[in-house]
Amino acid sequence: MISATLDSINRELYNLEKKVYSKEKEKIMSKQLEELLNNLANNLNSMKISQNEELAVLYNKISHLEERIKYLSLPKFDNNFNNKKEIKSRIKEYKSIGYSVEEIAKELDISVGEVQLILNLERDS
Asked: Tell me: the pLDDT tens digits for 95-120?
């Protein structure tokens, strides 16, 4: 009878140890999984930041290329203007496609002030 009771106690002890071991193993695995998920989240955030930085660089390059295309899209004129009407017409043409006053002045080889004056006179008339 004592031997059966000892066997029963030993079985219960074994089952309890098994449950404790299983719980500890579950905790360890849960902790490892949590660490893996945190690492994954950190890596994804790093990738997102890197991707945003690359997008910003690409947008800058696109903007620069658009400016270059705008600059190169108009045919180059010789700067020996026949009259003031031709200057006005070219200034209006450049302005209509988005050139800045400085770009127009550079393109037509005239002063920025002259371009501004002509544009202001055109606007006021």
From this structure: 888 899 999 998 888 999 999 999 99
pTM: 0.41
DSSP labels, 26-89:
HHHHHHHHHHHHHHHHHHHHHHHHHHHHHHHHHHHHHHHHHHHHHHHHSPPPPS--SSHHHHHH
Closest by alpha carbon to 74, among 63, 89, 85, 64?
89
d(CA 35, CA 33): 5
CA dihedral angle for residue 119, residue 111, residue 78, residue 75, rounded to 10 degrees: -60
Instruction: In whole angstroms, give the CA distance from residue 113 to residue 125.
Output: 18
Q: For residue 22, which amino acid is it? A: S
